[in-house]
Amino acid sequence: MGETTQVGKPRTRAEYMEEILRLKKEKNAVLLAHYYQEADIQDLADYVGDSLGLSRKAAETDADIIVFAGVHFMAETAKIINPDKKVILPDENAGCSLADSAPPKEFKEFVEAHPDHLVVTYINCSAEIKAMSDIICTSSNAVDIINSLPKDQKIICAPDRNLGEYLNIQTGRDMVLWDGACMVHEAFAMDKILDLHKENPNAKFIAHPESPQNILRISAFVGSTEKLLNFVQEDDNEEFIVATEAGILHEMQKRVPNKKLIPAPAKEDNTCSCSECHYMKMNTLEKLYNCLLNETPEIDVPEDIRKKALVPLERMLELSK
Ligand code: 13P
Ligand code: SF4
């Protein structure tokens, strides 16, 4: 790793961006960003992707430092795969309501109460929950992973009840579901969506499978962030109402500059009327700069948990090659 050249603290957005690129190069760091990150961070990243793409990139990188512009469970996943690399997250408080909805003690009791069940867990969970799982999945590969299991295999699907209900319908299974949810995808306002559709009758409504069934039932297409991006590119329609975190519109508009993209509205009581994940938005240019400069906050996972959590993660990576 090279020695850090200390220059004056950046003041403008352009200076922050320039310094982040310089530090990244100097320290042989790779910047991985989720589609829900603020636009400037996405533009600086070496790779922008969904949860599956990001975990694949984390498994491939030969950088010394992984800077994860995403939330805690994503950085933790990168550390589980790369115990010898330094993994840093611009704001260590960037958590996830869905991951928080599965506390390890209660989850352990739930698993023990279903002894003959295989535990298929969505990647949006803590390392401790991964360590209690048999296979990890993401919204991109969940249907294929579940379909690869024997038809009579009993399964626990956790922690997202909405994704679980969607997967039960898609795969014809009757998986036991953990009752967790993402606060952003639960907050879409059906009445406002219907009004918006009246104003934009030609717009196709598309949604992420973390959304509840009433939202998914009215969707022309359901998919992970990556699949939603591919859909708007490949579909002939010119207008879309997009029900997922609003940060995705940055990359989406880049890919389809001439199409009209409208974020699905959230209920009034949500933190933001346009469905923003406040955890994802905790990472800022300034925090990213400080994180690279000081190489903190660093993400660590206790070795016994890491080893156990790696097994279901590797199964997922193997099954979704
Ligand atoms: P994907 O990246 O798998 O689409 O999941 C979205 C999400 O909520 C990540 O936190
Ligand atoms: Fe978690 Fe939802 Fe935010 Fe994704 S959008 S990080 S699932 S709270």
Describe the structure.
It is a single chain. The chain is of the alpha/beta class and 321 residues long. It has 3 domains: 13-94 and 280-300, 3-Layer(aba) Sandwich (Rossmann fold); 98-181 and 306-319, NadA-like (Rossmann fold, 3-Layer(aba) Sandwich), CATH 3.40.50.10800; 188-263, Rossmann fold. It is 42% helix and 14% strand. It is built from 15 helices and 12 strands. It has helices spanning 13-26, 39-44, 51-60, 72-81, 97-100, 104-112, 127-131, 142-147, 161-171, 190-199, 213-217, 225-234, 248-255, 285-294, 303-319; strands at 29-34, 47-49, 65-69, 86-88, 118-122, 135-137, 155-158, 176-177, 204-207, 221-222, 239-243, 260-263. The strands form 3 sheets. Strands 2-1-3-4 form a 4-stranded parallel β-sheet, sandwiched between helices. Helix 12 (225-234) packs parallel to helix 13. The longest helix has 17 residues, at 303-319. The chain starts with 12 loop residues before the first helix and ends with a helix. The mean pLDDT is 95. Bound molecules: 1,3-dihydroxyacetonephosphate and iron/sulfur cluster.
